[in-house]
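User: Teach me something about this protein's shape.
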Amino acid sequence: MISQQLNDTITRIGPKTEAGTVLRCYWHPAALVEELESQFPIPVNLLGERLALMLDDAGDLRLMTRISEIGEPPVFYPDATEIKIEVTGPTYPVMVKKGIAFAYLGDGEAPEFPNFDCFRADDTHVFAFKGLWECNWLQALEIGIDPAHASFLHRFLKDDDQGSNYGKQFRDKVAQTSIPMTQVLREYPRPDINVEETDYGLKITALRHMDNGQTHVRITNQIFPEAICIPMSREMTITQWHVPIDDENCYWFTLFTSFKEPVNKELMRAQRLKEHELPTYAPLKNRENSYGYDPQEQADETYTGMGMDINVHDQWAVEGMGRIQNRTREHLGRSDKAIIRYRRILRQAIDAMGAGNRNALPMQDGEKIQTIIGPLSNDAVAPTENWSGASHQADLERRAACPWDASV
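Assistant: First, the predicted structure itself:
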């Protein structure tokens, strides 16, 4: 458990806050490219600021401060004709990458983008989407760096037809086997977890020791300050940012990256639009309808009884903690290694910024940032005595067969 003062320090991200100052050293997703098809200006609420996407005289995207009305809700999409720009307010640069408009709200020159797979891949192999969660960004991030939660929160009691599960996480067979991922998570719920600090954040390895001297190796990553990179299936990864709207609401923005076939963007968008409403991208399942809870489904099909979309499971878990999780009453355990290590890195970054040492933050050294590639994110089954080498080899084989340059 931590003090209320520390909880406030690491969760609140408005202008001039300590965590907010750290987050403003990085690019953040501001809108999907498909949202740019609307009439400009386009409202954006980001890091506690009320903003609007505009085109400047040169035709470049910029974020400008907009005048908001008293009592305006956190997620508000006024008509373009109703948006008023505060001409003396800050203006921020915007860069479009792989279907997402990223914005930089910090001081000084914006950093370069790291050479991650999601940015290196051909446009045909990347799909972008987003969704709204009504909670603080930090608890949204922390569920993504907890490898043990998948065995419980995303427990499916039946293993269904793999052929109908394109674009769905945990609904594939484990690489190099005929074993459904859902079966592995269900039968081996207590992984050994290793956490390593990296140039970009954390590498998190979950080891589920199976029968016959085999180990399932799942490698995920925390990309500082508020993103994760995880395997979605054998051939696809998810890079997901947990972007603060304000202290009590956030969007997750995801880039789905394929190492094999071009992404079926129409199908993946249609799958997700069945679960979200426009223009807010708010989930159709939420607190008001108990997240679609069905006791019969819970008895026979899923641990939560809240359908097959794991985003709903995660949403229920993080929103159920309250708008800002009360960490003064938590008791972290062995499976929370990555959460503990991440909070330490965040506090170190806050201290470094307070001392005027921005270069001490991950990915802020301009000479190193282009050397950061990957990160490695995959599932594999390997001999227990050589799980590390075999997992790495499986990743290299996937990269060697990739139609875009995924070499490391």
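Now, about its shape. The first helix runs from residue 4 to 11. The CA atoms of residues 6 and 327 lie 9 Å apart. If you'd like, I can walk through any region in more detail.
User: That's plenty for now, thanks!
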